Amino acid sequence: MQNWDDMRLFLAVAREQSLSAAGKILRLDPATLGRRMARLEKAMQVVLFMKSPQGYALTQAGEQLLERAGAVEQAMRGAAVGDLVQSETLSGQIRLGAPDGCANFLLPQVCTAISRENPGLDIQIVALPRVVNLTRREADMAIGVSAPTAGRLVVRQVTEYQLHLAASETYLAQQREICGLADLKEHRMVGYISDMIFDRELDYLADLGAGRVALASNSVSVQVNMLRQGAGVGVVHDFSLPFAPGLRRVLINEVSLTRAFYLIRHADDARNARLARFAGLLSAGLKAEVARLEELVT
């Protein structure tokens, strides 16, 4: 670990994703701050930031350093008051926004575990088939399927997840065998309502050239239940399959999609120790739960 002054400056830039914004907090000239970050990268022999007109986004090495430096910061703050922040239980209310697939199949387990260890904490999950607006304070933080590029937000990738085509055993037994992508045109497709897809990352069927969507919903859970009823073939999250007995993946080698969940927080809350503690627990729990559920279907 470098000296703490370097880490203090790094944390400000990493959280604000902007030299000017971090400079205001640190009372440093942005140019000076930029030189300090360049010097830090040179000393560590790694690239910590991806620089663009939109700001400073963390590289993978930067994310790793953020985690380490943040842990040191937490320990130092805790020592100053005679108790480690990480050992404190959480209380009060925290509202979390999430797409309905994550909200239905992952967050109940993750948030129940957090609640069990923090009995004074009230967790509210807002499941929406759209991007949660943190600027309007619809939630304290949000899970997204892509990293937003606008607004004063702090964004971190939590975990990747897998998706495959699937259909019910009953449907597959009654229909023509699916041997390749071309065969999908002979089958009923289940998917999103095209004009209600709120993120390009969710437009799975367009990428597959599957054509007409016979049964559609803006809800992942509804799509999964349609498939369980034998409605046709659709793209499902692997982590949802343990909750959907009777569904079987098809064309596993031809169609294997990878997406990611991102934890999105308002920049003004970046130094809120309580929210940071919850964010850490949420990220770790979400990553572990995706891995556990996906392991059940491999």
TrEMBL record:
Origin: domain of life: Bacteria
SUPFAM superfamilies recorded: Periplasmic binding protein-like II, Winged helix' DNA-binding domain
Stretches assigned to the HTH lysR-type domain: 1-59
Any one Gene Ontology BP term: DNA-templated transcription
InterPro entries in alphabetical order: LysR-type_TF_proteobact-type, LysR_HTH_N, LysR_subst-bd, WH-like_DNA-bd_sf, WH_DNA-bd_sf
Keyword set, alphabetical order: DNA-binding, Transcription, Transcription regulation
GO terms, molecular function: DNA-binding transcription factor activity; sequence-specific DNA binding
Pfam families: HTH_1, LysR_substrate
UniProt record similarity statement: Belongs to the LysR transcriptional regulatory family.
The protein, known as: DNA-binding transcriptional LysR family regulator
